[in-house]
TrEMBL record:
This is Metallophosphoesterase. It comes from Pseudomonas aestuarii. Transmembrane segments: none annotated. Residues 2-191 form the Calcineurin-like phosphoesterase domain. It holds the Pfam family Metallophos. InterPro entries: Calcineurin-like_PHP, Metallo-depent_PP-like. Residues 225-247 are annotated as: Disordered.
Length: 247
């Protein structure tokens, strides 16, 4: 079993509880982690119980603290951004971060191909730790996607949403189809919409995971997001005092 977890925003009790209850082989955090301590410390109770992976979200570069507690933690090498890894026997590709107008808002032409191009434009006084400003460490550059377009995977995880979401992007549909995935999971929007009517057009099944929600690799909601619609009576799996359901 692999669990996909919607934006934790600094809270991890539900993550620990879910792992202890379900014993998944692996979990994948879908960004906006905002750990107040190094991520390995936040998740210390479960590190020996499951394989922890993550992608970053836009809020993970809001401060030095959030950035360092993620990318400076003992779990930094478990970042899936811009790579494919075999996790619990499944090839999973990851794309963290968000599209930003200064760099690229698809389908418009991009302004900068890669971080070093943007850094050269910023000027030395605006650089952060010798590279692009901290905020843009969570910006998606075209070069991030180009690496993945040469890969193959079974599942794609992103912080941004595919085009089935009203604020999604068709370039992520293209990436998913190029990878050959059958499923995608995303966070960011704090909602879980019913994408089932879009599967044929998309060419894959898409799932949004709500705010602090948990969904398994089959698309089953184990813990409803805090802003998800109320579930139908008698549906879902009870975790942490909330019940899951379908939108």
């Amino acid at each position: 079993m692999i669990l996909f977890l919607g934006d934790p925003h600094g809270r991890f009790d539900h993550v620990i509880e879910a792992v202890m209850a379900c014993h998944p082989e692996a979990i994948v955090l879908l960004g906006d982690i905002q750990a107040r301590r190094p991520l390995d410390i936040e998740l210390a109770p479960i590190l020996g119980m499951t394989d922890v992976w993550f992608i970053h979200g836009n809020h993970d570069t809001d401060s030095d603290l959030y950035y360092d507690n993620l990318f400076g933690s003992a779990l930094a090498d478990k970042c899936l951004h811009g790579r494919v890894a075999e996790i619990a026997g499944v090839r999973i590709a990851g794309l963290g971060g968000v599209f930003r107008g200064q760099v690229w808002i698809p389908p418009e032409p991009w302004n900068y191909l890669m971080p070093k191009d943007f850094a050269a434009h910023c000027g030395a006084g605006n650089l952060w730790r010798g590279g692009v400003p901290r905020k843009h460490r969570s910006t998606i550059f075209p070069s991030d996607l180009s690496v993945l377009f040469s890969e193959k995977a079974e599942v794609l995880v992103t912080h941004e949403a595919p085009s089935a979401h009203p604020h999604g992007f068709s370039v992520l549909d293209e990436l998913a189809n190029s990878l050959g995935v059958t499923k995608t999971f995303h966070g960011h929007h704090h909602d879980r919409r019913d994408y089932s009517g879009h599967s044929l057009r998309l060419g894959f099944d898409a799932y949004g995971v709500g705010l602090r929600g948990i969904t398994d690799i089959n698309g089953q909601v184990l813990l409803a997001g805090e802003q998800d619609d109320a579930p139908e009576p008698g549906t879902g799996v009870a975790l942490g005092g909330r019940r899951s359901g379908r939108r």
